[in-house]
Task: inverse folding
């Protein structure tokens, strides 16, 4: 059973930055397109960034130009660099495969943007 472990969240002021990590327990993740998702209170989980096996990236309009997704297959890890954070970025952030969820969801990492 593949485990996903997200980390790097926290409390940050508007305009600040955070870098999230998502580590997996298997190198099989390298064959999948991976995505970062987030779920804000009272809202559905949404895809915000994805990276293919060939390192092509795509972003939701809400984060384009501010967030950068990357992957390190040697470390079975993906990252999300988040800059110019806004209060509306407050959410629990998760990673998983895309478009289908082949792995069990991890616990996520809370990101709170507030002054």
Result:
């Amino acid at each position: 059973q593949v485990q996903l472990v997200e980390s790097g969240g926290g409390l940050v002021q508007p305009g600040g930055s955070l870098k999230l990590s998502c580590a997996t327990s298997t190198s099989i993740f390298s064959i999948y397109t991976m995505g970062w998702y987030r779920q804000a209170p009272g809202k559905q989980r949404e895809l915000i960034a994805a990276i293919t096996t060939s390192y092509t990236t795509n972003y939701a309009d809400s984060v384009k130009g501010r967030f950068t997704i990357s992957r390190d297959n040697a470390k079975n890890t993906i990252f999300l660099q988040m800059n110019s954070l806004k209060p509306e970025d407050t959410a629990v952030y998760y990673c998983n495969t895309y478009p289908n969820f082949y792995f069990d969801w991890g616990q996520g990492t809370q990101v709170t943007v507030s002054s």
About this structure: Residues 14 and 86 are 5 Å apart (CA to CA). Strands lie at 4-7, 10-12, 18-24, 34-39, 46-51, 57-59, 67-72, 77-82, 91-97, 109-113. The mean pLDDT is 95. The chain is about 0% helix and 45% strand.
